Amino acid sequence: MRPVAVIGTGQTRHARRRDDVSQPELVREAAVAALRDAGVRGADVEAVLISNMELFEGRALPELWVGDAAFASGKPCMKVSTGGTSGTSACIAGFHQVAAGLCDLLLVVGYEKHSEGHTQTGMALTDPFWDRAVASGALGNFALSVSQYAAERGVTEAQAAMVAVKARRNAVRNPHAHLQMPDITVDEVLASKMLAHPLRLLDMCPQSDGACAIVIASEDRARKLCPRPAWIKAAVTRHDQPYLGDLDRRLASMRTLRDAARVAYGLAGIDEPLRQLDVAEIYEPVTYAELAWYEALGFCPDGEAGRLIEDGVTSMTGELPVNPSGGVLSTNPVGASGVIRVAEAAAQIHGRAGDRQVPGASTALATGYGVYAWADAIVLGAQA
Amino acid sequence: MSRSSQTPDATRADRARPRIHVAGIGSAGPTIEDPRSIPEMVLEAVEHAIDDAGVNMRAVDAVVTASVDLFDGLTASSIAVTEVVGAVMKPETRMAGDALCAVTHAACQLWGGVYGTVLVVAHGKPSMADHDALTAWAMDPIHLQPLGVSFRVCAGLVAQRLSEEDPGAPNRWAGLAAAHRSAAGEACSRQDVRDSPMVASPITRAMCAPLADAAYAVVLRRTDREDDARGAALRSGEPRRRRGDRRVYLSGVGHDLAPHSLGERDPTQWEGLRRACARAYAHAGVDSAAAFDLLEPSCAYAHEQDQFVAAVEPRPDALLSPDGGLFGGTAPITAGLSRLVAATRRMRAQPALKRALAHGTWGPAGQGQAVAVLEASS
Description:
The structure holds 2 protein chains of 2 kinds. Chain A is of the alpha/beta class. Chain A is built from 15 helices and 11 strands. Helix content of chain A is 38%, strand content 18%. In chain A, a hairpin with a 3-residue loop joins strand 10 and strand 11 (374-381). Chain A is globular and about 55 Å long. Chain B contains 12 helices and 12 strands. In chain B, strand 9, helix 11 (303-312) and strand 10 (319-320) form a beta-alpha-beta unit. Chain B is globular and about 60 Å long. At the A-B interface, helix 3, strand 3, helix 4, helix 5 and strand 8 of A face helix 2, strand 3, helix 3, strand 8 and helix 10 of B.
């Protein structure tokens, strides 16, 4: 397979409402930033992939409307839509198109403008016979799974609150991040409104308006255009049962992410992820999920995620900084959230992550999470 | 992704690119109002395709689906089919556009060397809703949707424009629609088409391909991995096709997105289709449409055949929608894959047919265009 690299990344300012821009303008803002970062022009882009969850804005086929803003007119363009993994899956589709030789320079743009729709409605249109009555958006089903996970692994509310504090304090270093909470404390998280036991308001991700784009290049173009390309070492997807009740101990097992990571690590030559990864940008929609993902991703044995966060292993100064960007807990335009994970991981390897840069990062993990238990795992490295 | 030993140094026009065998095809419908659920329809199509390929589900490395949430009224509408397409604990990607986009993605997975066998599945169930009304939600919500513009309205504007230049065109389109409907098994005359209710002047109802519920599935396999030990071990029995039947290969893909606003392009000219064809021809090593014996366009309106012919310029003696094309019933989003299935079926049966073009389109007035080049050999 041809080597493929991410050579540029760009993001909008993310916020609860971006009334100053339309959806195409939001897309344009990210696309232009990514092209500028890569040192290329819109005319250089040969193909485009769009990521978006159209029901959140109540649209159909939104790439038709926003494609022009993504420099797609007159070019190959298609849209990927797989729930929360839309962004990472679109990036993987882009890797495949370039690797297959369909093009040499491709733009992926993910976006969501939650403020122009009703996300809860968009998330609740599951199977009308078996699922819709119980799957009331993200909150209810996460409360069930988190309760089970926390009980099984002995995770405490305080440990989950530490994840919330880490994420929001990291986000202060990220000028794009939606939530800016420099003074947040564990006590503040524990005192925040209970939404569905054990999930409190500050355990949850926000809904953001925002977009993110990456430029993917073939080996020749990457070497010419980027001083330190972020090479794709592995990209693995796993989907699972469509019904919540069919998933065995969902967060506690998270067999999709576990298997995707196992295969991705194998392809990337990683035996000890905690030691060999320099940084991880993981898709954590709730605090407890980040702890569950530590175990699924092999950062620690099952049952030790609470200790990992308490010991600061995943903090900015720890052995493996997780989500220096502030993660999904700080910024969540769903169609873009997966692209943001890849962009942030790539920017760390590019050495262009600003105040949130992990010094010398050369191997990075990005993950996607969607629906009940769909997962993507992507390993990026400084070496082709 | 880092299996560096596989297909090194592939280039865009690399003729050494591994061949992709259209190993299995299957369908459910089209049926005007199928009483079954989406998963039930998709399961039937998948089972036919898997059976046709002579493999079982364990041989499938990855799945690519095509559907649109708003048309289905479902969140992440591939959730509805995850189990029946066999994607549990496997890679699955959903393309929200014409199903030939899903074929393109699957082809990239195969050409890139990531997988050896990919299942492509598309479904559409327009009987669940007023599809034309839903298409209004795909229009620019600031400048077009408030005017009540839908895909059908756009088709009417295009047909109006074409008929201004050629006043006899509507009568010819009536003849085309009647011929296609007859080829698809419906007794229909030119006068019947002309007498049917006007839906978007000058388009009458019978000039529109009937919306129907349908699902299609295709198994694509890299030929260099087709006979590996695992594939042989997993064969579930004798393929439905006889040994020695003609094999059909996918040799090129191309797609394109034109500007959205009708004022930014001439919607009577399918320039996007020309560009998509040029890309696919480059992959397949084809010089022009003269190479095709069979063309299966996705023309949801009779006048779109004129646009297709003008853009592609097929040989006069080439077969064009011999079974009536979409006029036998069409489910949105599935159209391109339905054409690939129809072309494959006919190429297997008619040895004289060497090369075919399958076509799909999505969006208003042909904004999105996709094509696939198929080649047959004994």
